[in-house]
Amino acid sequence: MKRMLFVYNPMAGKEQIKNNLSNIIRIFCQADFEVTIFATQAQGDATRMVIEKGEDYEYLVCSGGDGTMNEVASGLMHLSKRPICGYIPAGTVNDFASSLRIPKNMEEAAKLITKGNVFHCDLGQFNDRYFTYVSGFGAFTEVSYQTPQEWKNALGKAAYFIEAIKHIAEIKAHHMIIEYDGGVEEDNFMLGLISNSVSVAGYDAYSKMNIMMDDGDFEVMFIKELRNPLEVQQALGALMMKTFDSDRMLQFSSSRIKIYCEDEVQWTLDGEDGGFHKEVDVRNHQYALPILCDSEVADSVSHKNLIEEKK
End of a domain among 115, 141, 166? Predict the structure, then answer.
């Protein structure tokens, strides 16, 4: 039998795991998994458990929101022998699962784990912490961890945007120097997204087609300070249409980004509080996260197929 550590967050989303747990475990047992179950009680529990016990198992499956997946992935980076990962999304938005097209139905996600292919996904490092799909600051990112859980449960994705509208007048721009592969930019910025994901906060954030999740590069978008209502309107229009032709926007791909700021900037990592920082060093760890998903999906987000096509 294959040994599996199943880590779940009982409070994620609408606490839907409560009604699905026995069926999920049944699916795993029928597929010849020997399952050890661990329910998180507090922030950091998943990371601690993975570090302490992860190497004892061939498979490591988690169920929760993107924050739970972040904790599991962060724990994996401390292991020399990394088990194969599975993800059963149970949060509000689940951007990472959406990018890999992991089913929202929990039983279907469990079945996928029993028959899926291993995809070696990139993982981001933010100073001494890690993220699976996004690090960001400013408008529409600070709200992700400020939004009350009951709002997330009741309103889903809309809760993030309602909270963002409440706070947008309070978002201030930060003077930054941004160094990346092939360039340097200096300006005042009110939003920054550094991601390895097709969507952020449920929104397909990039105009680039065929975003690859194992190519060693992040997709990056910064919005400069919007100085008047016309620039606000132009920026919102560009975001909606994904044209990004405004001179107030900066978009590029890079494997490493260094940011220097005059003041402390509050960041979010996978929707959780990332702390305040004046200097940020973001690195891409290529192929670091072995995760189970559908083979067709893995092919669609893997740059290896593009390399083969060029040959």
Answer: 115
Domain finish residue from 115, 139, 165: 115
Domain ranges, residue 76: 2-115
pTM of the predicted model, to two decimals? 0.84
Total domains in the chain come to 2
Residues 25 and 137 both lie in one domain: no
Q: Residues 52, 172: one domain? A: no
Query: Can you list the positions of beta strands (E) in the chain?
Result: 2-8, 33-39, 59-64, 84-89, 117-126, 129-131, 134-138, 174-180, 183-195, 218-224, 249-254, 256-269, 272-293
* Structure tokens belonging to residue 112: 């996928």
Q: Is residue 224 part of a domain?
A: yes
Residue 189 exposure: Cα atoms within 13 Å on the Cβ side: 25
| CB-CB contact of 222 with 192 (8 Å) | yes
Of the candidates 69, 70, 65, 56, the one whose C-alpha atom is nearest the C-alpha of residue 4 is 56
pLDDT in tens, 93-134: 677 888 888 998 999 999 999 998 999 999 999 999 999 988
Count of residues in the chain: 311
Under 8 Å CB-to-CB from 167, ≥6 apart: which residues? 139, 142, 143, 146
C-beta separation of 40 from 7 below 8 A? yes
Secondary structure of residue 65 in the 3-state scheme: coil
Task: Identify whether 300 is part of a domain.
Answer: no
**pLDDT tens digits, 124-176:** 999 999 999 889 898 655 555 455 555 444 444 444 544 554 555 567 889 99
